[in-house]
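Posting this for the archive.
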Amino acid sequence: MTELHPAIAPFLVQETQLRILGESAFQQFLTRMVAHVQRYFPDEAARAGDEDALRQRVAQLIAGGQRRGLASAQDLCRYLNLILATGSEEPAWLRDVWSDPWCSTPQSRLNRALDLLQRRLGMQAHNAAARAQFDAGEMES
């Protein structure tokens, strides 16, 4: 093994230090995602109860995104948005996207899932408006 110059040794980062740095960065990200959920998904935040329970729920959802192969903060945030917007972790249409052989990367599957969600939400809004018109007797014959 090569001997290190004594002036360099104090600046070497040990493996445990790297893990601690990584955990610190994750905790900061988790804190940002909890605030994100509180701001953009207040009903979900309220359902969690207290902030510790919400933090645990958000950490579980992030872990789900990581199991799907997502790693960047942006992709994990988008995954969190997807899951919270669906109201369920695994609706059937989403399971189909995750297993789609035509989507070759986790990011392409996430993009596909978000596109489908956007279409589904648009269709739901359209259907709700049409239903309201129908109920009000405003539909054309």
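The helical segments are 15-40, 42-48, 51-67, 73-86, 92-98, 106-135. The radius of gyration is 22 Å.
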